[in-house]
Amino acid sequence: MSMKALPLILLLAGLARNGASGAPRAAGAPAAPAAAGSRAIAAEDLYRFRWIADPRIAPDGSRVVFVLESVSADRKAYDTDLYVVPAAGGEPRRLTSGHGDSAPRWSPDGGSIAFLRPVAGVPQIHLVRAEGGEARALTSLPRGAASPAWSPDGGALAFTSTTRPDGGGPAPGDSDVRVVTRPEFRADGQGYLDPGEPAHVWSVSLEDGACRPLTRGPFEEAEPFFSRDGARIYFTSDRRPAPWYEPEDEDLFSIQRDGGGWRKEVDIDGPIHSPALSPDGRAVAFVGWINPPTERVRSYDQPDLLVWEGGGELRNLTLEFDGDLGNAIQSDQFAPRAQAPIPVAWTGDSRGLLTIGGLGGRSGLIRLERATGKQSLVEWSDRTVSAFSATPDGRRAVLLAGSATEIGDLYLYEAGRKGLGRLTEVNRDLFRGLRIAAPRPLAYKSFDGERIEGWLLRPDLPGEGTRSPLVLEIHGGPHLAYGHAFSHEFQWLAAQGYGVLYVNPRGSATYGQRFGNLIQYRFPGDDFKDLMAGVDAALALGWADPARLGITGISGGGLLTNWAIGHTDRFAAAVAQNSIADWISFYYTADFAMFTPFWFRNPPFLDPQGYLDRSPVSFAASIRTPLMILHSEDDLRTPIGQGEAIFRALLAQRKKAVMVRFPGESHLLFAAGQPVHRVERLRHIRNWFDIHLNGRPNPLYDDPRGNETVTP
Q: Less crowded by CB within 10 Å, the N or C end of the chain?
């Protein structure tokens, strides 16, 4: 698949979590400025944060249902419940109390809401009246249900399930030995995949509760939805027998409501995501792209909004939009249970489309005209829009948007009105008491004249006339971006007295196709130079101490952290998080297989030197900076062997290094891990910088035998 579809780190965006105690707040008078609070933000404030995800506006635009997520009582998981808030304003009302509820979907008449709730750990479709009451289960399949979609008459739901249509499955007592025949047999956050149980399209009748499999075979199917008359069900699928070393390529299919009459509707050489049928039933819009010839592939390729007209014409509405679709802004404040595909919505007259676009470290709501592709910015500000849904006529939409000083809340957009109406303030009471640092923009020219954008957080209450330590943060992806999104980690470091610098080096998303693809076959490389130029620009302001510089990053940012300390001694301490150290072993052990020709021209068994030249561990002999390697033990994206490699390479030279391992955690520890682990992660980062930037010894990282390099 294309690397724009599967970056190294995650495809981040807004997810959901449930609040601490009490109901979420309605939007009232504007909150007091965040920076005016009485105390600094703490690592433990994570336990009080609440997150919104997957907002869905009712068909008549009168109400919004959303997922609210919070930290569970034992601080080892998250609770998710559904709430409803009036579009006219008012207090949100709790709709469910299942503590694991997600994916709410309004019935066509707005009277009921279908959603997912785990039963014995398996998600099943449930139904609840919009006014409230007891929810009832609609499915009870052995392997659960996903992606529910209503029929237009409200009498049925289509969905996907990995339950075997024939009812078969492994017999009790079968061996636990796994026979693997495919290169992609594990997925980060999921574990081992079962090739014998692909997701198929099912339907459930509300009248008699009957669940029926509608498709069969060895291929995965996804994103089902009904035709306007309810006679057919559409879905996407990659029907190639061995797609793992080929660019991503799905097609759109349809079947009759009873499972017969299978046919291919849209056939392109490229992926199809978020398909949406026009109100007039004559076109399908979707997010995707056309794969270029092998010799012209790009590691970064902006997704497009494509429209397939009834006569077979395929038109690209974003040819003139040199930005991203969806939200590419990295943050540690998204809700891991409720992430959804890039939303696409038609206007009621079938003439326009709404979606999320990203430009210059921002993401907002944009409109594109079906006939011309003309773009207009519907909502564009210093907020990050991570999700939205619109009424069938496109006149109203609910947006999930946050900023650098606020976690995401809900806002109402109405066509013809200026501005947005705020619907929720779920963290208002907590944030009113906190001092939140406001970032300051920093733009500068890199070594070759390339313009780079970034931001600085000044430390909380710095001493008069004293210079402060400064930490450089590096995003992952590598084709993600920093921007106008709240970061607990950045705020926490600022509260601990550290300045924080975060920039978007070449390769970052939201700055256009050319800029994003500058690092193809050069990662790491000139992006490192961009980062060093950013440090120079920050130091030139005069308040940061050049002798007390720290560096840290996650995933691709961890790779650049490892690379930086092998190429400069300017940093007094480094923390590499879920990083890459050795490209060769990464090629053979990551949970995805599509490396060439996107990131490297050839595989390592044909060009080992090309991989060694770009592997940080190759430069371990040059590293003098004390390094903390922070890694999740169940990370299948950048497996823990990556952290172990650089750790052992440094210990073999008696250099200062420590490894902090998080059991049971995936690649997304920083944003989706157990809350107690996320808090401990912040403390370890702070501790390491305190030791080496502020001279505060900590025996936790001392080896009892005296070499000061033991894993705590």
A: C
